[in-house]
Design goal:
Elements: E1 2-10, E2 16-22, E3 25-29, H1 32-40, E4 50-53, H2 65-83, H3 90-116
Parallel strand pairs: 1-4
Antiparallel strand pairs: 1-2, 2-3
């Protein structure tokens, strides 16, 4: 049986896409379904028959509550400034990009842990 994890990911513009991961295969789509469809095209035999894991995105050791709150705060600031045609100060933009990367790394780590269990 194939285990697939589908995780939301946010780019530095705050746009959400989804990453589907199964073992060493992964894909990205605008929706969870698109990501899953693209992933199933890579699996052998073609198609998908397995367990689909969609985590609840609670704080954990890989991305804690303080990091989630800071990311949300920076995303809200970024959106407000974008809507006014402005940009975040460089230090906040850098922090936002680092938190997005950390969240993606944490999501990937969770997927690996789930796949091993």
């Amino acid at each position: 049986m194939t285990t697939v994890a589908i995780l939301p990911i946010f780019d530095v513009r705050g746009e959400k896409t989804y990453r589907a991961i199964a073992g060493n295969k992964q894909s990205v789509g605008k929706t969870a379904g698109q990501a899953l469809d693209a992933l199933t095209d890579q699996l052998e035999p073609p198609g998908f028959s397995g367990l689909l894991l969609i985590p609840d995105f609670q704080p954990d050791a890989l991305f804690n509550v303080a990091q989630q709150q800071r990311l949300a705060d920076l995303m809200n600031q970024w959106r407000a400034m974008r809507d006014r045609g402005e940009e975040l100060p460089e230090n906040q933009q850098t922090e936002l990009e680092q938190l997005v990367e950390m969240e993606l790394t944490a999501a990937t780590g969770r997927s690996i842990l789930l796949a091993r269990s």
